[in-house]
Structure formats: C-alpha cells, structure tokens
Specification:
Elements lengths: L6 H8 L9 E11 L2 H11 L3 E6 L4 E6 L2 E7 L18 E8 L4 H10 L6 E7 L2 E9 L5 E8 L2
Parallel strand pairs: 1-4, 5-8
Antiparallel strand pairs: 1-5, 2-3, 3-4, 6-7, 7-8
Length: 154
C-alpha cells in the first residue's frame, strides 16, 4: 500500500536523531546541464518566470531563482564546461544536488565523513540560494554528486 512507512525506514526512526555535526536545512540548488544557454535562459525566465541569479560566465554557468532556491544551468556547448560534461553522450543531465546544512564545525564534518568512508571531492566558497557560503562536495554510494552548503558567511 502506498504511503506506509516500511520496516526498513522505521528502523532508522527507531535509532533516534543521527549523530552528525550538521543538520540538513533543505535543498539549496540543483544543477542542470543544457546545450544552449540562450534558449535555456529564455525558457526558465520567460516561460517559467524564474529570475536571473548569479552568473559565472567564465565557467559557462548561469543561475536562476526558483522561489527561494536556485536552478543552476551549465552550458555543455561552452568550451569551459568540460568539468561538467558526462563521460558518455546522454550519460546524465544533472551535475549535482545541493543540500543546505546548518552551521557546523568543518573539521568535525570532515572527520564525520571520513569515519563513514566518504571522501571529500572538493571544497569551495560560492553563492547559493542563501548567499555566499562554504560548500563541501561528496558522492553518494551510487556516484551522485552531493554538495553540502553551509549558511551565509556574512
């Protein structure tokens, strides 16, 4: 029956609050691969009513506001976007999902991830839906890139 909590899911609730040095606060942004930035911006801004956000033209990226969250567009036809292109044609259309997290001690977060055999793929400070903040990139067990984005630094 749809909508019931499985025994597997219930077992996590029975464990109580997870012992993590941060708390999830929501989805900050999603990153979509596009093949024509002008067409994509026209669609998101004119058809869907998104508002322009941060621009990172040097890496082929535009962001648009979707309510209080961002949709990030990466133009795979731009020579500067080799970092985001899938290894095979049609391989994927989402670069990563960004999860907003609570303020936390970054060293404690790194130690927590290491304890669980999760390698930090990269760290940066850049803009997201809540402003400029620390970002930590990891991969889930299926190979999906996850960005853990802290609150604004200012």
């Amino acid at each position: 029956m749809a909508g019931e909590l499985s025994a597997h899911a219930q077992s996590y609730l029975d464990k109580g609050e997870p012992d993590t040095p941060f708390k999830l606060a929501g989805i900050d942004h999603v990153v979509l691969l596009v093949d024509d930035m002008n067409t994509a911006m026209e669609f998101y801004c004119t058809v869907l009513g998104a508002r322009p956000g941060y621009s990172y033209r040097h890496i082929g990226m535009e962001q648009v506001w979707c309510g209080s969250q961002l949709i990030v567009l990466i133009d795979t036809s731009d020579p500067s976007t080799a970092y985001a292109r899938p290894p095979v044609a049609g391989g994927r259309n989402m670069d990563h999902v960004c999860l907003s997290i609570s303020p936390c001690d970054r060293e404690a977060m790194r130690a927590h991830l290491k304890k669980h055999n999760v390698k930090v793929d990269g760290e940066a400070v850049h803009g997201g839906a809540r402003g400029m903040g620390d970002a930590t990139y990891i991969f889930d067990p299926a190979g999906n890139k996850i960005e853990l984005k802290g609150p604004p630094l200012i």
